[in-house]
């Protein structure tokens, strides 16, 4: 038997309060996570990026061989079939060559770019 009589609607108010507080916690986590996750990923990616910096020379040499080989393959196919390569192929190879030029020239470009960004 109940000693004190509960006011009407108190059970519904309690359930509503628990539901809303649970929703608030969930929303808080969902709103904070997009801000925290990129920082966590970047912090853990630091050693990986440092490892890539150490690989710059031999990866650049591999890229040079790949791009030169691809241009050679395109030239060979063009001579063999007597057809002009597709425009998309030439655009993609031009972009690859431009990015390769940046990679090769990076040791010369890095310091001036960093100086420019500090200002």
UniProtKB/TrEMBL annotation:
<keyword id="KW-0472">Membrane</keyword>
<keyword id="KW-0812">Transmembrane</keyword>
<keyword id="KW-1133">Transmembrane helix</keyword>
<protein>
    <recommendedName>
        <fullName>Mercuric transport protein MerT</fullName>
    </recommendedName>
</protein>
<feature type="transmembrane region" description="Helical">
    <location>
        <begin position="49"/>
        <end position="74"/>
    </location>
</feature>
<feature type="transmembrane region" description="Helical">
    <location>
        <begin position="86"/>
        <end position="109"/>
    </location>
</feature>
<feature type="transmembrane region" description="Helical">
    <location>
        <begin position="12"/>
        <end position="37"/>
    </location>
</feature>
């Amino acid at each position: 038997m109940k000693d004190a009589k509960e006011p009407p609607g108190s059970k519904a108010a309690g359930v509503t309060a628990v539901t809303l507080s649970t929703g608030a916690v969930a929303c808080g986590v969902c709103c904070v996570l997009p801000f925290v996750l990129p920082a966590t990923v970047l912090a853990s990616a630091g050693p990986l990026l440092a490892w890539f910096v150490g690989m710059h020379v031999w990866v650049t040499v591999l890229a040079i061989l790949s791009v030169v080989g691809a241009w050679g393959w395109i030239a060979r196919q063009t001579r063999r079939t007597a057809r002009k390569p597709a425009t998309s192929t030439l655009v993609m190879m031009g972009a690859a060559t431009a990015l390769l030029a940046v990679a090769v020239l990076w040791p010369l470009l890095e310091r001036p770019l960093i100086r420019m960004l500090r200002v």
